[in-house]
Specification:
This protein is an all-alpha fold and about 200 residues long. It contains 8 helices and no strands. Keywords: Coiled coil.
């Protein structure tokens, strides 16, 4: 699937104009079809943005986690084919050459409003399919993260119960570095040696 997206991207960069720029040329030249041209251009831009997002995800380090998106291989291939067909129909190269032979230099929009409705509807369907697949994968990832956070929280609670310092018994006056007994007499050297020997052996 990544190869299909890459192949489509390399074809677009191989010197042929993008569909968006072709639509822009038509919108400047053909005033009466401006709304139709802009509708097609917006949908194509949406699809191209989503395809870039899909490509980025499927080439990333977590590509195995996007199983739903990865299964859209056929839909993506079909969408890319429709974009290629649209590009061929929009490319004014051949049409312009033919028209210039007859002395006409005008650019003519190749679609009727009904055809534009169908193109926009098809592209919108692809956009929704790809977006929903990405949402399913995102939800799956979020649930996985949520489950891991729950486990971390449980581990933290059980660790807190084990190490609840407030519940540990305290020997009054036996704190580390305590100065509570400093006013009392201390043992003199060489006294209580027998007791110390019993403790150390």
């Amino acid at each position: 699937m990544v190869q299909i997206v890459q192949h489509h991207g390399s074809e677009q960069n191989a010197g042929t104009p993008k569909i968006g720029s072709l639509c822009f040329q038509y919108s400047k030249a053909v005033k009466d079809a401006k709304d139709d041209i802009e509708r097609v251009q917006r949908k194509v831009d949406d699809i191209e943005r989503i395809q870039k997002d899909i490509k980025k995800l499927l080439e990333g380090p977590h590509k195995a986690r996007f199983s739903t998106t990865y299964r859209l291989f056929d839909s993506l291939s079909q969408c890319l084919q429709e974009l290629k067909d649209l590009k061929v129909k929009l490319d004014p190269g051949k049409t312009r050459k033919t028209m210039s032979r007859f002395g006409v230099r005008a650019l003519q929009w190749p679609f009727t409003s009904k055809q534009v409705d169908k193109i926009v509807s098809n592209l919108e369907g692809y956009k929704q399919t790809f977006s929903l697949a990405l949402q399913v994968d995102q939800t799956d990832l979020m649930l996985d993260v949520d489950q891991k956070l729950d486990l971390v929280t449980l581990d933290a609670h059980s660790l807190h119960r084990k190490l609840d310092l407030a519940r540990l018994p305290i020997a009054q006056g036996a704190c580390y570095n305590s100065r509570n007994e400093e006013h009392n007499a201390r043992c003199l050297p060489n006294t209580r040696t027998k007791l110390l020997d019993d403790i150390t052996t």
